[in-house]
Amino acid sequence: MALSTADVRHIATLARIDLADDEVERLREQLSGILAHFETLAAIDTTGVAPTAQTFDLTNVEREDVSRDPASREDVLRNAPRQDGPYFRVRAVLD
After folding, report:
1. 20, 13 Cβ separation under 8 angstroms
2. Which long-range contacts (CB under 8 A, 24 or more apart) does 31-40 make?
3. Helix (H, G, I), strand (E, B) or coil at 87
4. If DSSP codes are grouped into helix, strand and coil, which group holds residue 46?
5. Which of 36, 48, 68, 74 is 20 to 30 Å from the Cα of 81, by its Cα?
6. How far apart are CA 87 and CA 59, in angstroms?
7. CA nearest to 14, candidates 6, 25, 26
């Protein structure tokens, strides 16, 4: 599917992107090429293929869920970029 210059300008308007004339032509060619790849993929018969099918087996690698003692307050605060006594100091988010 080849996009027109008007299509690219419309897409740029929707994305709130200001494009120069040379950029419009370059992007028209690139986007048309991307759409051509999708047309090729859409032509492949995927009847009977599960939507979550993979070409290789997937396995989760998980560690044992073992409880352990929490880190001490001093150790945690040692990693804080700023602190105020026993607390993390952060910039105000709300006025």
Report:
1. no
2. 31/3, 32/1, 32/2, 32/3, 35/1, 35/3, 36/1, 39/1
3. strand
4. coil
5. 68
6. 40
7. 6
Task: Give the three-state DSSP class for 58.
Answer: coil
Rounded Cα gap, residues 73 and 86, in angstroms: 8
Around 59, how many Cα atoms within 13 Å sit in the side-chain half-sphere? 4
Could you tell me the two tokens for 63?
């560690």
Is the overall model pTM greater than 0.85, yes or no?
Answer: no
Question: Could you give the CA distance from residue 76 to residue 86 in angstroms, rounded to a whole number?
Answer: 10
pLDDT per residue rounded down to tens, the chain (95 residues): 789 999 999 999 999 999 999 999 999 999 999 999 999 999 999 999 888 888 888 888 898 999 999 999 888 898 888 989 889 898 888 87
Show the domains of the chain with their CATH numbers. 5-42 (1.10.20)
